[in-house]
Amino acid sequence: MAFEFVTWPKMVVHPLRVHCYAAPVAQFCTAVDTSYPIPEDSDFDEVSMNVGFHYMANAGGRLAGTDLSGWAYQTHGLARCPWWSVGFVPAAVLPSCRLAGMGGSG
What we know:
The protein has 4 helices and no strands. The chain has 106 residues and is mainly α. It has a domain at 76-106. It is extended.
């Protein structure tokens, strides 16, 4: 019995082209999904403050994530970066649960 190699059909569209079209759509959906509840759940007088806090917290989180991931890469190398990511998940979930009143002390 001879082995036959299974070959995938030739891709018609380059993966980078798919990414260039799909990423903005996904980013738009995520932005609408995360930003819409803020004005909807806010009091009339506090909408601009709550939206500003949302964008400030988002930017701060991105800055901290960029700094920490760069530090992890430079000090521990690429092989250990996924383990740092695993550790950052509970570090993000615990304050989020506390803010949402879902658990934790507070």
